[in-house]
Amino acid sequence: MGRTITGHGVTVRITEVEAYGGSEDPASHAFTRTPRSEIMYGPSYRLYVYRSYGIHHCANVVTGPTEIGAAVLLRSGEVVDGIDLARLRRNHPAREVQLARGPGNLAQALGITLDDLGADLLAEPVAESGTAVRLGPEPARRPRIGAGPRVGVSKAADVPWRFWVEGDPTVSAYRRSPRAPAPEAGP
Questions:
Q1: Fewer C-beta within 10 Å: the chain N or C terminus?
Q2: Which major enzyme category is it (predicted)?
């Protein structure tokens, strides 16, 4: 959290993510190993990109260890460089906080597509074109982090693996999947 990701001329400070435990997590794309999820079983810091609802791309960072299929979905962020390009890609939303709010919007602002699947996020940028997708350095100061259930999943819906920078306006709203069972009552 707080780390940046740069893609195709835009840089975003990550403010919200969701973790997925791969072969041990029924909400994960890697719960069942398929050609689509194969990248998630490889080395850490690779980009797993998929289409959501047939129109949006979503970007995940593979976290490993190898053969587990674990990854972190990039849910939201703040555009910190390349704002004009992000606005153009996002069809000029009214407010800057909306440029990369939500996983589809974040990937769109960064220009991430299926062509970026498997990108090594720790590699040096490609020449001077700026087309590589890469993670920036760890932040000097860790922000205050909140945690709660993941958004929109119907299986393992109450697992508190959604993390966000507390109080940040770019964090997306929590929406429980209508297909998820009712939350268990507390003590």
A1: C
A2: hydrolase
Q: Which tokens sit at 91?
A: 């069809």
For the 4-165 domain, the top CATH level (class) is: alpha beta
pLDDT in tens, 88-128: 999 887 789 999 999 999 999 999 999 999 999 998 766 55
Give every CB contact of residue 93 below 8 A, 6+ residues apart in sequence: 87, 99
Among candidate residues 88, 73, 74, the one with its CA nearest the CA of residue 30: 73
50 compared with 178, residue with greater pLDDT: 50
Report the alpha-carbon distance of residue 178 to residue 139 in Å, rounded: 36
- Label residue 138 exposed, middle or buried (CB < 10 Å: 0-12, 13-18, 19+): exposed
**Is 160 buried (19+), middle (13-18) or exposed (0-12) by CB count in 10 A?**
exposed
* Domain boundaries of the chain, sorted by first residue: 4-165
What's the rounded Cα separation, in Å, for the pair 60 and 40? 9
b/e map 115-132, b = 16+ CB within 10 Å: ebbebebeeeeeeeeeeb
